[in-house]
Design a protein that fits this description.
The complex is a heterodimer of chains A (116) and B (113). Chain A contains no helices and twelve strands. Chain A is mainly beta and 116 residues long. In chain B, a hairpin with a 3-residue loop joins strand 4 and strand 5. Chain B is globular, with a radius of gyration of 13 Å. Classes of the chains: A mainly beta (116), B mainly beta (113).
C-alpha cells in the first residue's frame, strides 16, 4: 500500500536555529512530492514541490526540501527558524503509474513550534 | 487576485438536517476537491471533480454529495447530518494534470449536535 509518514508529531526549535521536518514515503513509480503549511484557523498553503530535476527545491518563506530517492525521503528544511514559522506542516505524495487519476496521499502533519 | 472562498465559515446544525457548504473559485481551475480535517486523521478526501458535470467519490464519501454545474462552484451537501460529520471542511482546486499544487479555501467548521 502506498503511504506517507511524518514520523514526528511535533518539532520544537529555537528561533535562529535550523529546522527540519521529516517526510518519508512508500509509493510506486516516480513520485511527485509536495509540502504545505497550515497556520491556525487557516487553510493549507503550498510551500514547494518536487516533480523532476534538481533534488534540492526551494520554496516560499525561505524553505527548501531535498528529494532523496534512495532513502525515499523529502525532508523540509530552513536554515534559520522564525517564530512566525510555527504552524502545522503537511507532506503529500502522488505516486503510481503516470496518469491524471493518481491519488494524492497525505501525511498526518507535523506541528512546528519555534521558541523565541 | 484569484481566490477560493468557502461559506459559511462556521455552522452549527442538528442531527438529521441537510447542510450545504459552498465553495467558489476564481482560478478557472478544472479540478476541485473537498477534504475534511480531523485530529489524528489528517486530511481525507470526500469528493472531487475534474470538470463540469464530473463528480467522483473519495475515501470518505458516505453521507456526502457534490454537484458541478459550472467551473467555479462545487457545493458539498450533507444529506442528513450526523455527529460523526463534525469536522473542518476544506475546498481546494488546482489546474489539470498531476504536477500542479492545490489552492485551499479557509475552511468551514461544522458542528453537528
Amino acid at each position: 500500500a502506498q503511504s506517507v509518514a511524518q514520523p514526528e508529531d511535533q518539532v520544537n526549535v529555537a528561533e535562529g536555529n535550523p529546522l527540519t521536518v521529516k517526510c518519508t514515503y512508500s509509493v510506486s513509480g516516480n513520485p511527485y512530492l509536495f509540502w504545505y503549511v497550515q497556520y491556525p484557523n487557516r487553510g493549507l498553503q503550498f510551500l514547494l514541490k518536487y516533480i523532476t530535476g534538481d533534488n534540492l527545491v526551494k520554496g516560499s518563506y525561505g524553505f527548501e526540501a531535498e528529494f532523496n530517492k534512495s532513502q525515499t525521503s523529502f525532508h523540509l528544511k530552513k536554515p534559520s527558524a522564525l517564530v512566525s514559522d510555527s504552524a502545522l506542516y503537511f507532506c503529500a505524495v502522488r505516486g503510481g503509474n503516470a496518469g491524471n487519476n493518481r491519488k494524492l496521499i497525505w501525511g498526518l502533519g507535523t506541528s512546528l513550534g519555534v521558541n523565541p | 487576485d484569484a481566490e477560493i472562498t468557502q461559506s459559511p465559515r462556521h455552522k452549527i446544525t442538528e442531527t438529521g438536517r441537510q447542510v450545504t457548504l459552498a465553495c467558489h473559485q476564481t482560478w478557472n481551475h478544472n479540478n476541485m476537491f473537498w477534504y475534511r480535517q480531523d485530529l489524528g486523521h489528517g486530511l481525507r478526501l470526500i469528493h472531487y471533480s475534474y470538470g463540469v458535470h464530473d463528480t467522483n467519490k473519495g475515501e470518505v464519501s458516505d453521507g456526502y454529495s457534490v454537484s458541478r454545474s459550472n467551473t467555479e462552484d462545487l457545493p458539498l451537501t450533507l444529506e442528513s447530518a450526523a455527529s460523526s460529520q463534525t469536522s473542518v471542511y476544506f475546498c481546494a482546486s488546482r489546474t489539470s494534470g498531476e504536477t500542479g499544487e492545490l489552492f485551499f479555501g479557509e475552511g468551514s467548521r461544522l458542528t453537528v449536535l
